[in-house]
Amino acid sequence: DAMVIQNPRYQVTQFGKPVTLSCSQTLNHNVMYWYQQKSSQAPKLLFHYYDKDFNNEADTPDNFQSRRPNTSFCFLDIRSPGLGDAAMYLCATSRSMQEKLFFGSGTQLSVL
Amino acid sequence: GQQVMQIPQYQHVQEGEDFTTYCNSSTTLSNIQWYKQRPGGHPVFLIQLVKSGEVKKQKRLTFQFGEAKKNSSLHITATQTTDVGTYFCAGRSNDYKLSFGAGTTVTVRA
Hints:
Number of strands of chain A: 11
Helix content of chain A: under 10%
Shape of chain B: globular
Largest sheet of chain A: 7 strands, mixed
Distance between the termini of chain A: 34 Å
Oligomer: heterodimer
Order of helices and strands of chain A: EEEEEEEEEEE
Helix content of chain B: under 10%
Number of strands of chain B: 11
Number of helices of chain A: 0
Largest sheet of chain B: 6 strands, mixed
Structural class of chain B: mainly beta
Strand content of chain A: over 45%
Structural class of chain A: mainly beta
Order of helices and strands of chain B: EEEEEEEEEEE
Largest interface: A-B, 17 and 20 residues
């Protein structure tokens, strides 16, 4: 059974048109993360939630926002997507900040 | 800030041969994790090393954590086609920040 679920698998949006990516988990983990991964590169952490506490990485653009309405769900909002935002967006969870990450299958975002 | 360097970026291996990928951190780590990402897939956790000098084995995979807790290696023996993918190390600093290396992409010649 899938434990970290991301929808949709592929998302196409237009330049400047807001888009929301979703992630849900059945693991009841405290921490949820959003990573951006471009082709042949390492995943880059955008932000994470520890419970309701939001932690933004210093170099994450303001264009990227996140919401975690409850333990199970987390959303990534891209307010005005640019061509450079085309990437795979990976959601991950962990029970604590010291433990292993469980990744979802990712959402491949294309910006036209 | 903390940086995790991983080499080589690409590894082309003849089936049956061994290879090693190396990971180095600019700072001391509290632990290091290794993930495997198959082509078109997402990273999947392989192992976590915590103790200085720790060595762990998973079948043909041997993971080591350096004595100074600043470097790690993954050695694969008798490479198989199922080993194809990108192997990432991820170092955890004392402030719980997890930094991924750039990954080693492995291809196998049958």
